[in-house]
Amino acid sequence: MVFLAVFFAWPVAAILRRGLLDDAGGWDPVGALRVLGRADVLHLAAFTLGQAAASTVLTLAVGMPVAWLLARVDLPGRTLLRVLVTVPFVLPTVVVGVAFRVLLVDGGPLGWLHLDGTVWAILLAHAFFNTAVVARTVGGLWSHLDPRAEQAARSLGASPLRAFTSVTLPALAPAVASAASVVFLFCATSFGVVLVLGGSRYRTLETEVYTRTVDYLDLRTAAALSLLQLVVVLAALAVGARARRRRETALSLRPTASTARRPRGRTWFGVVGALVVVVGLLGVPPLVLVLRSFSVVGWSLDAYRGLGVSRNGATGLDALSTSLRTATDATVISVVMGLLAAVALARAHGRLGSLADGALMLPLGVSAVTVGFGFLITLGSLPGDLRTSPLLVPIAQALVATPLVVRTLLPALRSVDERLRQAAAVLGASPLRVWREVDLPLVARAVAAATGFAYVVSLGEFGATTFLARPDRPTLPVLVGTLISRPGAENTATALAAATVLVVATAAVVAVVESVRVGELGEF
């Protein structure tokens, strides 16, 4: 909580305070309300909420068949399938934007659909990015539902659709609501995807905060927009926390044995349909991106040779080295903080535990630009002036990764039988030894998975890093965002090569994580 207070609550509060002051520094909350009441701001808020809601519906429609496939169908190569489903969620958002831009642009594989520059490009990219949330969250509960209730409904004459809507879907409702709230949160605060695909035509609260801060230095409007965004985030987190508690209660009442079975008969039609979704939506965009990086101007490695060319004093290889170094630092910070928080939350009960759990989720929803700018105006008053420290970017990345670490570790820690701890304590073990001898061996695989996810999320963080990284020391996602916004075939080629490097690195780490995965009970 001290870490969150210093590096999250304080910077965000400083920015929000700016929104409640007038140009002379006087207290003027009415002025903030006038800003929020402007027609352009209301239109911006309406589009942000509308595209987030539409993206959530589309993601649920795509993710539910994938959740069924992972939960109820025992296919060879399930680990590879889980990797394919999970990789999009941990890809840098700017890479997702670039992949769909390459896919949908005129002359691209799907250019004939004329979706480039439309809101559909944003919705499809959001569905690509968030399908794993639905598949993992809903699939975790679905794999533990007793299939006999649905079988009984079928034996009484219900059609497969009626059996699903009357029996299975109500049982899955806590997980569906939990996944939907998280997807809505991610889509409402999306930055890289909207920045790359929306251009100047489509703007959300998140991208407008960035534009107002960086391009116009309009801190008053940016702070007011951040305040409005915070209200939306708190509402989504409240719904998500309630749904998550219902999901955990539902899981605790289910058998632990997997219900996945080999497909037979007409089940194969559903399997083929779900695999088409996985391959078509989740597999094609990264594949097209990789292939395009080799064929910007004929088939060659010229794009990758461009990674060695200096731009603004840094090459692509320098950016890769910076990314690996900062991601390592951020992973250490986030795993330590996330583990401490998960241990505390696993033993916390009542309203205080719920409030703490919600507070830990806030960094996922608040504008990364708000946090980054808050760093610059607050951390200078700390000893050593962290604004010039190489730890500034890793700390910002750790704020985003820590909630994911907590959500990965918490189900594993809560599944540890308290009687094991009590038995060790009765035999004379100290609390530290109980943790070392009982808890740690049981959650070691979850810690390994959390570490891997923290690393790839930190490696691909784009929002706050865009604001904080020095021009001569960009990370690889920042370099991709910079190059893709510049004209010229060489810049585009280098951006595609750098994005491909991020895709390969992310897929490799996720494959390792899946090899040590801890079962189906983990959340997104």
Structure notes:
This protein is mostly helical and 524 residues long. It has one domain: MetI-like (MetI-like fold). It has helices spanning 2-19, 29-36, 39-72, 78-90, 93-104, 119-142, 148-155, 160-188, 192-198, 205-214, 219-252, 267-293, 302-305, 316-346, 350-365, 368-378, 392-414, 418-426, 431-460, 463-468, 476-484, 489-515. α2 (29-36) packs across α11 (219-252), α4 (78-90) crosses α22 (489-515) and α8 (160-188) runs antiparallel to α11. The longest helix has 34 residues, at 39-72. The chain is globular and about 70 Å long.
Task: Using brief descriptors, characterize the structure shown.
22 helices, MetI-like fold, 74% helix, 0% strand, mainly alpha, 524 residues
Summarize the structure.
It is built from 22 helices and no strands.
What's the domain count? 1
Mean pLDDT: 84
**Count of helical segments?**
22
From the alpha-carbon coordinates, what is the Rg to the nearest angstrom?
Answer: 23 Å
Tell me what portion of residues adopts beta-strand conformation: under 5%
Q: For the record, what is the CATH homologous superfamily label?
A: MetI-like
Family: Belongs to the binding-protein-dependent transport system permease family.
Membrane topology: Multi-pass membrane protein
Protein name: Iron ABC transporter permease
InterPro entries: MetI-like (IPR000515), MetI-like_sf (IPR035906)
